Amino acid sequence: MWTVSRLRRLLPLAVVSLLAVLTACSSSTPAASAGATASKGPWTFTDDLGKTVKLDHAPTRVAGMNDEVVPLLHYGLKPVASWGYSAIKDDARFDGLDTSGIAQIGTAYGELDLEKLAAARPDVIVSEVFPTDEKGTIDKSQPDYGFKDLAQQKQVEAIAPVITIVIGGDGADVVDHTTKLATALGADSATVAKARTRYDTAAAGLKKAAAAHPVTVTALYADSDGVNVAKAQDDPALRLYADLGVTFFAPTPKGYYWANYSWENAGRIGGDVWLLEQDGYDSAHLKKQPTVADSAALAAGQVHPWVSAALDYVSQADYMNRLAGWLTDSKAVTG
């Protein structure tokens, strides 16, 4: 989730030449991705930034950010390495998934163990990037999300080609792009088709629930500095739900993606149902804040987790089912 800055103390980075030596000397590496077999012919894939990766065989060893590794696992693939802004065991999106054999090379933003990444011998590495405005502009002067800087990204690219997924625009499109990559990496077509059916069924259920229970939903993050309310049209997943009929609270502060409220002004935040990002304050903390303690959604107990579900058929189906249930159980409590 790109909700807050998770920049922490950055570890010293090893030089690429050292990584190459360690790769050659490594005697223990994770198994190749399950469901992926090397082809005899060349393999190409063009990512969302227009970069074309060309290999002499289909990649079987894939590394990536947690956000992109979760979809691959759902589609039956087994990446060899992963990193994110938390440990795999602390990331609820991995619950129920077999993560054995996945080398964890980073648990904080920008802190990657490049020696460990090189030792995993990935054929390709999957990352992501977010637009900087409503037009979908990608700032090419900045690294992909999760890398400390461009220098670190270049070190990663020296280990294996990087495939970038753009997390912006219509969530349904992002899900399709993620699935296209998984298929290219060897995901079983029957597994993908089953996941798509599950996704379509959940989407239909959410659409029905939104029509039958017209409540207003607010997605937000809160900490000691104040409250940030997400603008649904700027978040791919929230936009997907909005396209299915979910009504979202429209915050007034200007800016891309986030509308920022100080605690003094937080009482202006509306919505019958709140989706609360899990990395910040929980409901108990909110109830201690005088300006929001009496908010209608909080008082009614209509506050639920916003878990930033991965953009794949399975993850989104699960969250849409949960959201449909919350809408069904909620009532309008604001004017």
TrEMBL record:
Keywords: Signal, Transport. Its main location: other. One of its GO terms (cellular component) is outer membrane-bounded periplasmic space. Residues 1-31 form the signal peptide. The keyword Signal applies. Pfam families: Peripla_BP_2 (PF01497). InterPro entries: ABC_transptr_periplasmic_BD, Bact_iron-sidero_bind. Residues 66-303 form the Fe/B12 periplasmic-binding domain. GO terms for biological process: iron coordination entity transport. It is found in: Cell envelope. Coiled coil: none annotated. Belongs to the bacterial solute-binding protein 8 family. This is Fe/B12 periplasmic-binding domain-containing protein. It comes from Streptomyces mangrovisoli.
